[in-house]
User: What shape does this take?
Amino acid sequence: MLKQSFNREKTNSTKYRNSKGITPLCVADMDFLTSSSLTNKMIKRLKKSTLGYSYVDCNFYSSIQEWMKQNHNWKIQREYILFSQSVLSSLNSTIQILTEINDDILILSPEYHAFYYLIERNQRNVLEYSLEEDKGEYHIDFKKLKNSLTKKTKALLFSSPHNPIGKVWTYEELEKLGKFCLQNNILIFSDEIHSDLVYSQNKHIPIASISSEISNICLTFNSPSKSFNLVGFVLSYIISTNEILLSKVNKQLTLNLYNKVNAINDFMLIEAYKEKKWLQDLKSYLYKNIVITDKLLKKYNSKITFKIPESTYLIWLDFREISLNNTIIEEKLINNCKVRLLNGNDFSSKEGNGFFRMNIALPRKKLIKVLKQIAIEFK
Assistant: This one.
């Protein structure tokens, strides 16, 4: 399944739309077939089911509870969970109801590009704190973070694990960040969609699991879509122990029509969270792709470097030694290498300069071909 190559150009794939001979390694979905066990269960379900209006299966909630307990050592109650259609639509509703127009929303840049869009489309202000970086290692300087705050700072929009740098935050970092937000009356909106794609000795810790006090200011957003190759489904959930915050968000989801389940998406979560073997095989394959990327760039003496990510199937490539601006690099990637990466400037006009994000979730043979073209072009 993971080695098998197939043509996505005629599948209505957003990533491959108008690709015209360019390999798109920009959009964060996988060029693998979804688990055959999972798709077979879906087919079987559809054959037995009518496709009328549906409500959320109670097993949807118990599956999330069990998954969080087993994989993230987080015990949550049923009433702490909301169904929602996607992480981004959930964040959109949350920003609308828990902050006000012209409020400042803090992000730790470079940060997932959609965060900027969500903040600005809702007439809030992006408050950008630049993470401290040294040879690909990123951390928070809390004195500088404190100095960056304004009186209008109401929330932190947080990715954990971090997209695009692939950082898995440690317990100590999360605890310190959580206490910082408590001390400064800042809500935490934590996007944890990559939490099940963590490698090696790293361990994802939900920031809301650190303490009851931190949990009370947190809303956690998650979905099996990235981990189980289901991003085409409208499927996610929100977790919060703060009943008042959760109730407000639920009302806004209803107002925006973002909490309507279809005839199959809750079923897909229930069944996806049974696919542990497939997920383990996937992570093993992805990590080998990451290692091969590192080896090939070094083999061809490329000036491109990167720190091995601790999570996700996204690599934060460092082109700074090339001494070209991102526009020229992007042109060379498309015209000479026939590949499209995501421009680092989309993640921060300042911290993203000299960087590009690359998706390595594709069959290895195809990845190697693309990597050789990139490595040779940027020697």
Observations:
- The radius of gyration is 21 Å.
- The first helix runs from residue 36 to 48.
- The chain has two domains: 14-33+276-378, 51-273.
